[in-house]
Write a structure and sequence with these properties.
about 600 residues; GMP Synthetase, Chain A, domain 3
């Protein structure tokens, strides 16, 4: 429809390095490319089958994705395998391929040249047909035939981020996509004049559904950039918002935190963020401190606190479940942690660290015809207002279940309340409560740490660890529990900032001599003294300009902070090299993978 009405209208613009315009797609060009790819898939008898989509950031993915929809092929978006770690890449890729049972793999010619030789050696992958869609002849578009899709026809399988288990594929239909796009359209109050900027990975539910599909649904322009370009230089995201006068853009909480911490005053001085009306924040816990820091940092750039739009969603519901009102500031609620730990909360008016309270950010109300209920996960009965329980969701956008997993589908997608028999509901696995209709997400049911009968939220412990010492790398901490002598014990793993020298142990010996001796001092101690050393035995090495790391002081700071803030003893502290924390392809922390790595000793500890 868009191609017929506005064939020359630009829909997608791609910034190759996050700054330079590399390519564009109009409705007409995208329609023709999608038809050509669809005709090729139809000639391969792929209709109704699964196709793995392995694309780098760029517009080729969009053409291939819509090509699958045009062909009646079920798209399976995945990140391109990392050929630098072929065995690890092959393990995950092979597991998903074995689960999805695809017949074709779609990618670019450059990607296929790198991976085809490796992956075709694996059993079960040799029979796949590998297609480079950037080589597809455009004249094939005339051979396309309408697949007659319905609302129940599967559009894609969205594989959730796996940890220690094989990822599960969420079956999303055309009807699910239409419903959720309508929900987003209504909740965001979108008009055709709106412009969005996104750096989110297209194989992730937020990046695909909100970043790619929703702009097409509403008929508005979207500017895309590679995720890596944002991660390398966060200012690129806000520069794009400023340059293109974007009204809609967002991402997980860590993105706002990175911008607040890493964008310099000089960089901020060139930004104009006054066009930004909706800065959505979802996919991970929304932190009140992050919102405050970001708003303060970018107030001179025209950013206002009411631009923030905290929201909640998950792949099993296609994407969006709840959100607020566009012109309102986020709703904050400050609560007693001691009360929250026993599955209910008590509101307090003033934040006071001495009273051990916590500020939660509301994720809005249920959108459109979505229904949210809070349920006791043991009794499966509805919780009272303001009481913490598992978040259950009922909506037309709830997906059809997990691919080839009938038992898990039954447990997760077909839940009923034990007291009233109402259902079916989607069990999200997230904990939260409803206060005056506002959803407050408090944690993850499976990640919940229970010690001494208390519910401890790992996200809060991780924030405490992050703030305990400057050597702890932000957003790179994991808190989890292990069983020791029939008791649950708290473990903390934390990456150390790269600016700290990480080949040092504690230095507590006594030195001989006065002042700095250029590495020639003698002393009794157990530290590695490879640099300047002063007379009291404290090492001050110069490892390419990096700061010295006092491991003992760092561990003490972490233990003390957790004990003071959460009244729990840390059984073990594991310090990790920067970049070694297990995370999903979309940047989410994998606590269970971290727990498994701690138990089997495979984490890159210092």
């Amino acid at each position: 429809m868009r191609a017929l009405e506005q064939p020359e209208h630009r829909i997608y613009t791609y910034l190759t390095d996050g700054e330079t315009e590399g390519a564009h797609l109009t409705y007409g060009a995208l329609d023709r490319q999608a038809r050509a790819i669809a005709a090729l898939l139809q000639s391969c008898q792929a209709s109704g089958e699964r196709a793995l989509l392995l694309y780098p950031a760029g517009l080729e993915f969009i053409s291939a994705f819509f090509g699958c929809l045009y062909a009646g092929v079920i798209a399976v978006p995945l990140p391109p395998p990392n050929t630098a770690q072929p065995q690890r890449a092959l393990s995950r890729f092979g597991a998903i391929a074995n689960d999805a049972q695809p017949t074709v793999v779609l990618s670019t010619s450059s990607i296929l040249a790198k991976i085809e030789g490796v992956f075709t050696q694996a059993p079960g992958l040799r029979t796949l047909r590998w297609i480079a869609t950037d080589k597809t002849a455009c004249n094939l578009a005339d051979e396309w035939r309408d697949p007659a899709a319905t609302c129940d026809t599967l559009a894609l399988i969205q594989y959730t981020s796996g940890s220690t288990a094989i990822p599960r594929g969420v079956m999303v239909s055309h009807g699910n996509l239409l419903e959720n796009s309508a929900h987003i359209d209504q909740a965001f109050e979108i008009s055709p004049d709106d412009v969005s900027v996104t750096w989110l990975p297209v194989f992730h539910d937020m990046g695909l559904t909100n970043g790619i599909i929703q702009p097409m649904y509403r008929g508005r322009e979207c500017v895309l950039m590679p995720p890596q370009s944002f991660l390398q230089r966060p200012v690129r995201w806000l520069q794009a918002v400023s340059k293109y006068k974007a009204t809609i853009s967002g991402g997980p909480n860590f993105a706002y935190e990175m911008c607040a911490r890493k964008i310099t005053p000089e960089q901020r001085s060139a930004l104009d963020l006054s066009s930004w009306k909706l800065a959505y924040n979802g996919a991970e816990p929304v932190r009140a401190d992050t919102l405050k820091r970001f708003a303060a940092a970018f107030d001179p750039c025209g950013f206002r606190p009411n631009f923030f739009y905290p929201c909640y969603g998950l792949a099993e519901a296609t994407l969006m479940v709840s959100g607020g009102f566009v012109k309102d500031e986020p709703i904050l609620r400050t609560m007693q942690v001691s009360e929250l730990e026993h599955n209910h909360n008590s509101v307090v008016q003033v934040f006071d660290r001495r009273t051990n309270v916590r500020t939660l950010v509301g994720s809005g109300h249920a959108v459109a015809d979505t229904r949210i209920v809070i349920v006791d996960p043991q009794s499966l009965t509805a919780c009272a207002s303001d009481e913490v329980g598992e978040i259950w969701v009922s909506a037309p956008s709830v997906a059809h279940g997990y691919w080839n997993r009938p038992e898990e589908t039954e447990l997760t997608f077909h839940a009923y309340l034990a007291d009233s028999g109402e259902g079916p509901f989607l069990r999200t696995g997230d904990l939260g409560f409803l206060g005056d209709g506002e959803l407050f997400v408090t944690g993850r049911l499976k990640d919940l740490i229970i010690i001494g009968g208390r519910n401890l939220y790992p996200q809060e412990i991780e924030l405490t660890v992050q703030q305990s010492h400057p050597a702890v790398r932000p957003a790179c901490c994991a808190a989890f529990s292990v069983e020791v002598a029939d008791e649950e014990r708290l473990i903390v793993a934390a990456e150390v900032e790269p600016r700290y020298a990480t080949n040092l142990h504690s230095a507590n010996g006594n030195g001989n001599g006065n002042g700095h001796s250029n590495g020639n001092g003698n002393g009794n101690g157990n530290g590695h003294r490879n640099g300047n050393w002063n007379g009291n035995g404290t090492s001050h090495p110069h490892h390419n300009g990096r700061l010295p790391l006092d491991v003992d002081a760092l561990v003490r700071a972490i233990r003390r902070a957790v004990a003071e803030e959460h009244d729990v003893r840390v059984h073990a502290v594991l310090l990790l090299r920067a970049g070694s924390m297990p995370k999903t392809s979309s940047g989410k922390l994998e606590r269970r993978a971290c727990q498994a790595g701690f138990l089997d000793g495979t984490l890159a500890s210092l």
